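Most newcomers find our protein records easier to grasp once they have seen one. To make this concrete, we reproduce a full record directly below:

===
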Amino acid sequence: MRSQLCNVVRIVGVVLGLQCAAAQAESIPVRIVVQSFAPLQWENDRRPDGYVTEYIQSVLDRVSKGLPVYVSSFEFLPWKRALLTAENEPNVLFFSISRTREREDMFHWLGEVSPYGQYFYRLAGGPDIGAQSIDDLRNLDVKIGVQDGSNLHAYLKQLGFEGSGNLVPVTDYHQEIEMLFRGRVDLIPLSGALAEAAACKQGFDGGQLEPVVFIEALAQPLWAVFSKDTDASLVTAFTREMAVLKETGFLDRERSEHVERWRKRACGKR
């Protein structure tokens, strides 16, 4: 009798183990790749932070109640590497990215995560740049730092800037800021609401930044996307839950709180 009971226990254990293994095999792993861009998404003491990060994580929590989804990794990568990862691997979640005609068929577009608008900035006291438009800049002897592979980089090349020798491709906006304050470029693009704090965070005087030209053609919302080979049920659930959560005002509240906190933190303001 005792031997039979032991056999039953063993069988139950094997069955439960197989069930757990099957459930794990059916789970949907999501790999998150982003470029650090505070206060939208950034690494704070080795933990993801930012208002878009908070929004996306809350959406994932909601989605996980109906689907066996889990985050396999959350990685901060250079822009081009993050973009290529999202282009070529399944179940990759990528944010925050501009939605353009060239990118339309590259991803599943899930929903807007942040407003976005940039100016070209110069340093106060530097060379005067008499430009009223983007086209004016093309005919001036100025060096423009621009993130390699970005939406802006592609736009400027379309306008003929590449042949002018004005463009200085860089890895990311942190490098642009460094180069501007070191006198290696004359202009850099930065988000109007966050330019001062971005410079302060790198140890520079953000108050020295002066807007020159608004980049009107690229003033559009940023999005979250899934890679093309992502599980269809996940894309549908994520799109739905993003819209539902946004309707509650959650994203607007998070953005307001994080932007104000970031400005104070970056520039030492109380």
Q: What stands out?
A: The mean pLDDT is 89. The two ends are 75 Å apart (CA to CA).
